[in-house]
Amino acid sequence: MTQRDRAEPWARDTLGHGFGDAGLLRVALTHSGAPAGGQHFQRLEFLGDRVLALALAEHLMDTYPDDAEGDLARRHAALVSREALAAVASSCGLEQVATMPSVDDPTAARGRVVILADTLEAVLAAVYLDAGWDAARRAVLRLWHQLLGHRDEAPKDPKTRLQEWTQARGAGLPSYRTHRAEGPDHAPAFVAEVTVAGAGAATARGPSKRAAERAAAAALLECLVP
Domain check: are 211 and 128 in the same one? Predict the structure, then answer.
């Protein structure tokens, strides 16, 4: 059975949606660097990013009626982060049905996790275009079920937690230095270094400047907080 043959059963089982227009699903699952060429997921990814953001924002508004805007924003940021998307894409078996760039391309291989996250957004857009908002929202909540466990406190960004740690100890503000390392436009790589005077430094990589800085802050926190 080919990837294309597996795609529609995967969508029914994983998304809870049977596509009326299977062509939408095929486009969503096809990366621009895939050997087959033709239509690819990038335009759908643009829409899927917004579908995901709205579905999760709506869910959080309903689930946490007493949260302030800042708490809702932190919960939302954690759920739509590149890390969350990559985790969901991995757990739902997306790679088994997606048409990916050749593994002989080392740049594409490095960006594979990013590509899967982008493909997942494209798939959500395909559901939305195929069947409307309710179907797309159900697919999001189904895929994000494990990440939507109730928490009494909104998660804090690693950069926020590091800043709170340094200020509580009179160490001043963390200093970040970030630059683009390598990678094509569709899968860039950035390296960030964070330094806290008198406490240490850490370096990390990410698919965006913000993601790299967050990863660096998280790495330094692991060293500073027992």
Answer: no
